[in-house]
Structures are given as C-alpha cells and as structure tokens.
Amino acid sequence: MRDWVLKREALLGAFSKQTYKELFLYVYSQAYPGSPKIEQMSFAEQIAGANRHWKNGSTAKCSDEAGPGRFWKALSKVLDDENAIPVNLMRCSIAEFISYLPDGLKEDAVTALEYKKSKLGVNSVLLSSLKQKYATQTCIVSALTNSGDEYYSHLIPYSHEPQSIEEGIAVGVLNQAHYYLSLDASKAWIDLIESEGYPIYIHCLDALQTLVKRPTWLNHIGSSHYKTLICLGAGGAVSKDLVLIESMIKPNLQEPIEYIIQEISPFLASKSRVELHRVLERKNLLDKVNLSSNISDFLKLSENPVIPHSSENGCAIWTLLGCTIGNIDESSLLSGVNTKASRDDLFVVSTDTFDEKEGIREFRKRVTENYESQSMQDFLLPVVRVVQTYCGIHAPISDILENVEISVVEGCDRNLTGIPNSRTVLFTLQVEGKEIILLTSTRYEKSSLVRYFDQQGWLLADCAESELQRNYLQFLFKRK
Predict the structure, then answer these.
(1) For the ranges 179-183, 456-460, 475-479, which has the lowest average pLDDT?
(2) d(Cα 478, Cα 462) in Å, to the nearest integer?
(3) E strands, 362-448, where?
(4) Closest Cα partner for 234 from 209, 269, 202?
(5) DSSP code of 164?
(6) Cα separation of the two ends of the chain
(7) Structural element, H or E, at residue 348
C-alpha cells in the first residue's frame, strides 16, 4: 500500500467530503447505486476501522474482501478509467493516483493536500510539482496565510465578546462558545467531527439528504419566495451546506440565492467560505450563490444589524444543524431568531432524540460510551488547559481530562434546558471542591420539542429521520 494517507486526503478534497466515513460511504454508494443504505454504512464503518492500518509496504491484496480489496474495487468503479484498476490504485504514487481522477477533480485533490501539508508532511518539491501540473487556476490556498494554518485566513473581528472562561469558572458554568473561538479550539472541533468516534455528523447529513427530497421541502422550495439561506453555527463543515444550497438552485432561478454563514468563530467561518467557494466554482454554481459570513453570536440576533429582517428579501430558510440546539439556551435562540424571521420562514433544526421507552440507565450507558473517547478528550483539551491555568492546577493535563465526569440530568433540573422531558449530558470538573460545568449536550423527546417550538411560533411542517440512526431527526418548522 503506497501513499495511502495522501491518497485519502486527496479523495476528501476531490469529492468534497468532510469525514473519512462520509468519503467511504460516498464511494460505495456511487459504485453500487441502489444498494441498501444499511449496506453502504456497513461498508463505510468497516473501511473506517481498517484503513488506519493501511501503510506503506502493507501486504494487503486487492483480493482481500475484508478491507482494502472492497474499497479499491469500489473506487475503481467510481473513477471509471481503464488504467484505474484496483492493483494500480493501491501501488501507485500519489502523483499517479491524482492523474486517475477526473479532470475537474484533480485541482481540488491538490488543494486538499496543500491545506494540510504541515500535518501530512507533504514533500514541498512534490507539492510544487503537483500544483504546477494540475492547478489550472491560481490555487486558492496560495492566497491564504503562510503561517501553516491554511484554513484560517481572512479573519474578521468578533463584535460580541462572550463571557470569559475566567468569568465562567467563577459562576461554575463555561460559555460553550470557547470550544470554537480560538484557533486551537477550532482545529480540535474539526478533528472531532472527522474522527471515527463522532457519528453525529454523518447521521445529520443522512437525515438532511432525506429531508430535501421529501414533498414538503420540494413544494416550498418550488415557489419563488425562498431566496435566503441563513445557517446558524455553520462554520467548519460544508457537506451539509452544499445539500441545502443545491436543493435551492432551480433551473429557472432568476437571481442568486443569498447564503449567510452566521458563525461565532472567525476561523470556522473562513474555512467554510474558502471550501464552499472552491466547490461551487468547480460545479459552475458560483454565479448562482452570493456567499457571505457574519461573525457574531447567533444567540444575540436581536442585537445584530447585519442580519436583515427576512421580509426584506422574500422568505428565509434558517438552519441549525448537527445537534447544536442541544448545546445552547433554546429560549435565547428562538427569541433572537423571532426578531428577524417573518411569517412562512422555514427553520431546519436537527437533533438527536431518545425513545421514551428507553430507560434512563440504558440511555446513560449509551451516551457515556459514545463520549468516552480520545477524540472527545482532544476536543476538551484547549479549554480545559485554560481552566488549568486560571485555577492553578498543577496536575498533568492528561490527569485533569481523566477526571472529567460525564453524567445525565433529566428534565429541566438545574436549568440546563427549557424543554421538558429532556435528558442533558453533563461534563463536569471538580476544582478544589467546586463543580465547573465544562459542556452540556441535551437530547430531546420528540413531542416535547415540537410543542416548545409551537409555543414559540413555529409549526412542525415535516420531520425526517436518518436511516443510519432512527433517533436522529431533521425537523422542518414553519413560522406562523
């Protein structure tokens, strides 16, 4: 197996995928269209687990149906090149591998390698050669910062500084915005959603793809009223954004749709804008979308003059994806959105739910197992390190992370959520006998969430579940 890590990264860029599991799922679904979703996911999970061991000099063979063989055969079908047979794909260099990709994807593959050249250890001479050969236009990365943090270039000042970590320690609850604000925290977030231990991303994408194919969505988008897409907390991962954007682009589109990233992290907003620009340009859709970003707290929309009232440009579609609602104050969210939304606006909200028949003990065991991973500790690390400094904790950071407790609180106890019958996963750390809440993540009972939105002026229009995880739902609400 030769240059596998580089090939894997090149494929992420070429196919515009965010996570490795998403990439493997895509390859299989394209190679075997019509195959059951559960079969596609089984393949993706198997390859996601096995590919970590595919190293240079590996003795794996293309006939190995338990891992590499299945992947390279599927990829060969997708590439549809007479020379891109499995054995060649496995043994060729990264330069030759990129040559097998369709012409429209080669530059994106090279761009992906340059994005992470430091992390991947890409040879500079090799990279220069690939750019010279395949970059038909000026590679977008070359215009970015030379600091090595290629994703994070055009930084926009943050206008509403949130409660500081020091202030959060004083009251015992940290503002979760800090898990996305700094450069280190932004990188930790991207690493988390790309890790094997974080299934929420792929479940959210799957449910969203189902929602935009359903009659309710198609009937609304079929009208000319919906011209603006406002994505709250959307920075860092573009696959879901593309699903929404492409669903709104109709053959008779008279003017570009407005796509607004409302994101608290300048680094994540920058990353999304760069990647969306690149993909839309490749798909010849750039003239159909006006991309913009607004760096501010979406829980304070009422104070934000940049986001217009939606009635000024037809109806708007608001989105809050990836279980984000479970990490924030629901009342602040809706009171802010309601100051900007108009009648007939749509609101796509995704969240993980639980079956009311599932006992609290079983629920606690399931979610705790999901969160007890190295990738989750890595995500907590940048913020916990600041807590360590402020509190003067002398223990090694690894020991502090090991002492983070994960528990579950039911209902509205401790004011962690305003929606009854919920279950909130709580990450806490004891410092000199005082509890500090590091992070919360709430799961909802479906009917209670729908009732809450109805009370806030949003009617349930539709609901789609992920075929990969039935409890993961995409809600479509409509403003009364």
Answers:
(1) 179-183
(2) 9
(3) 405-410, 423-431, 434-443
(4) 269
(5) P
(6) 57
(7) strand 346-352
| DSSP at 397 | H
Residue 431: φ, ψ to 5°? -125, 110
* 265-295 b/e (C-beta count within 10 Å ≥ 16 → b): bbbbbbbbbbbbebbbeeeebbebbebebbb
Residue 278: which of 136, 125, 101 has the closest Cα? Answer: 136
Determine the Cα–Cα distance for residues 49 and 464; give it in Å rounded to an integer. Answer: 28
Q: How far is CA 425 from the centre of its chain?
A: 20
Cβ atoms of 359 and 347 within 8 Å: the answer is: no
Q: Tabulate helix, strand, coil % of the chain (nearest 5).
A: 50, 15, 35
Question: Between the CA atoms of 407, 409, 413 and 419, what dihedral angle is there, to the nearest 10 degrees?
Answer: 130
Return left, alpha or beta for 414; rule: phi > 0 is left, psi -120 to 50 is alpha, else beta: left
Mean predicted confidence (pLDDT) in 13-27: 88
Q: Kindly report, residue by residue over 188-218, the tens digit of the pLDDT.
A: 998 888 777 788 888 999 999 999 999 999 9
- According to DSSP, residue 256 is labeled P
Distances (CA, A) of 177 to 168, 180, 314, 435: 11, 6, 31, 19
**What predicted TM-score, i.e. pTM, was given to this entire model?**
0.84
Burial (CB < 10 A; 0-12, 13-18, 19+), residue 50, is middle
| Structure token digits, residue 436 | 């500090």
The span from the CA of 360 to the CA of 375, in Å, is: 25
> Could you report the per-residue pLDDT of 344-395, keeping only the tens digit for each?
999 999 999 998 788 898 898 888 887 888 889 999 999 999 999 999 999 9
Residue 68 sits at the vertex; the CA angle it makes with 60 and 40, to the nearest 5 degrees, is: 160
CB 246 within 8 A of CB 275: no
Q: How far apart are CA 11 and CA 75, in angstroms?
A: 10
The mean pLDDT of 157-186, rounded to a whole number, is: 83
Q: Mean pLDDT, to the nearest integer, of 230-248? A: 88
Q: Are 480 and 459 in contact (CB under 8 A)?
A: yes
Cα 155-159-161 angle, rounded to 5 deg: 105
pLDDT in the model for residue 16: 84
